Amino acid sequence: CSVISVPRAERSTVSTAYSPPPSDSQRTPSAGFAPARRVVTVTLSATMIDEAPAQIIQLQDDTDSIKAEQVLERFRAALDATADAIYLIDRASMRFVDMNESACSVLGYTHEELLGMGPHQIRPGFSREELIQQFDALLASPARAGHIETSHQRKDGSTFPVEIMLRGFTT
Questions:
Q1: Which DSSP string corresponds to 110-163?
Q2: Taking 80 as the threshold, does the pLDDT of residue 25 lie above it?
Q3: Would you give the end-to-end CA distance of the chain in angstroms?
Q4: Are 112 and 96 in contact (CB under 8 A)?
Q5: pLDDT band at 90 (very low <50, low <70, confident <90, very high)
């Protein structure tokens, strides 16, 4: 096998996605077609090799990555649709790594602003070190879960009572 370098001026590439029609085994009586379609990217390249025209055809099955993106999009939509504020906090950095729209709305911060903050910045009267101790105790408990009644502070400085259900997990 040899690799030949071709100057960009002598190449052209066309890509397209193709989803073949379902076979008879993929049809279901109630739904018509099962969602078992494959998405294949076809890349056609025309080039010159040793002064002779050549075509290169590349096939790439993108079905699994597209399905993973769709699952993530559905999860994000469900997370943002809930009225409860949900925060994901990285224990090592004590920073928010994600939150839903309700969390942003109730606190008055944008998503990007909260990503630059930690839970101690919305919980008046508690230092970062005190929250670290609480998180460590939670993670050391057999249930890795807990319940706290406290208050949060909005961007405008006003506070409001909250009931927090904590759950620790490892990723």
A1: -HHHHHT--GGGTSTT--HHHHHHHHHHHHHSSS-EEEEEEEEE-TTS-EEEEE
A2: no
A3: 41
A4: no
A5: very high
Q: Cα-flanking dihedrals φ and ψ of residue 23, to 5°? A: -80, 170
The residue among 17 and 134 whose pLDDT is bigger is: 134
User: Which residue in 162, 168, 1 sits closest to 85, CA to CA?
Assistant: 162
The per-residue pLDDT for range 131-144, each reduced to its tens digit, is 999 889 988 889 99
Burial of 126 (0-12, 13-18, 19+ CB in 10 A): middle
**Burial degree of 7 (CB within 10 A; 0-12, 13-18, 19+):** exposed
Please tell me the pTM assigned to this model: 0.63
